UniProtKB/TrEMBL annotation:
It comes from the Eukaryota. It holds the Pfam family DUF7705. This is DUF7705 domain-containing protein. Residues 1-22 form the signal peptide. It comes from Macleaya cordata. Residues 28-478 form the DUF7705 domain. Keywords: Signal. InterPro entries: DUF7705 (IPR056122).
Amino acid sequence: MENQVPVLFFMIIVLVFSSSFASEQHYTSAVGDPGMRRDGLRVAFEGWNFCNEVGKEAPDMGSPRAADCFDFSSSSLKHRVTEADNKLGVGKPFPGLSPEALNNTDLYAVEKELYLGSLCEVQDNPNPWQFWMVMLKNGNYDSRSGLCPENGKKVGPFKPGRFPCFGDGCMNQPLLYHQPTDFFGKDKIRGGFNGTYDLGSIRDGIDGISFFEVVWEKRVGVGSWVFSHKLKTSKKYPWLMLYLRADATKGFSGGYHYDTRGMMKTLPESPNFKVTITLDVKQGGGPKSQFYLIDIGSCWKNNGAPCDGDVLTDVTRYSEMIINPETPAWCSPNNLINCPPFHIDPNNKKIYRNDTANFPYSAYHYYCAPGNAKHLEKPVSLCDPYSNPHAQELVQLLPHPIWAEYGYPTKQGEGWVGDPRTWELDVGGLSSRLYFYQDPGTTPAKRIWTSIDMGTEIYISDKDEMAEWTLSDFDVLLKSPTL
């Protein structure tokens, strides 16, 4: 018996060590630049109109796709993208451009992104990757233009309604100015994009006009890149969106119906991933700022099959955690139409929305169903049919104790102005339990997420609003298979 004690003790030590080692090896990064720590940065810009297309280029700006990608050495930055590349616009050829895209504004932007991606691409295992993506979107919609499809179907002009538009040209692309990354002081590097939708106004200050800015800065060899964002609305442009995205390196990113480029070399699947990020909100952007601590997007059909580019049957799926404490819960016992049909708690128990004693109404801002779904449970609110190239589904969340197990905010104000935090979010675990519509009797969709982003959507503000925030340490971590 005495001889067995040292053996038992040794076995315990081995088990403890093995468990500790396993926990350290638990996750691997899905992105090409884990935690934003490479000195050689890859970042790109994309401008969208209301229906995630271009429509018309801004004067002398080229197609609204640009990139700032460089390799770093101790004394210099070797840029891979020239300003001539960034100014490419319809009618100007570049390597790989198809004949049908040369004079088609929307197709040109698609292929320009692929071209910029080829210039920025980094070979890696298991796949190459290209860049972080700055996404800017204009919420103005001229319903008389016939530019945006309705749940993927081409429709003609119709009378103006709830969408903002000051008249002809309201769906324009912005003026875009680029400050190429360069040394700033002895050991810092900095670059950025900025601009305005108010054509011809940027050099006269930003009072009374729209404005956006993203500046990236890093100390050489130390820590993470810090991305500083500003977004300002105006009377003419009251609905604007600005995000920093980790997108798929190939295939459809969230909100796209064509091949894209991005940072995620391996796509995360629910429930086996988490997201880490440091966020510091300086200004909130007013009561209509739906600031997303995290926004995830993907695409699958109502029968659970992956999207294949058929805009009539593909459906973009989004889940968004809104941390602006001024955002109310539209979902309530008296407004079941704004709630998902049921909630699934961390123990996989379904709680139906008419269970007023147990359903966590204040955990949901809004739920809306895809407009092409055929077996919806009423009452139901249908998502806006115009703002994506095909039908969409939205699950918008609010801070609530029910999300505590996943590392999300549990009460209003957490992570907001004056409360900077580094978050470790079990995005995979939470997204595996959210309600998304699916046709009865079909095989459940694989919830594989092609876009993960953070930023704000200032939704039809009543006055000029400014949002300002920084983020860093962005990473998407995949759970390793159990040994």
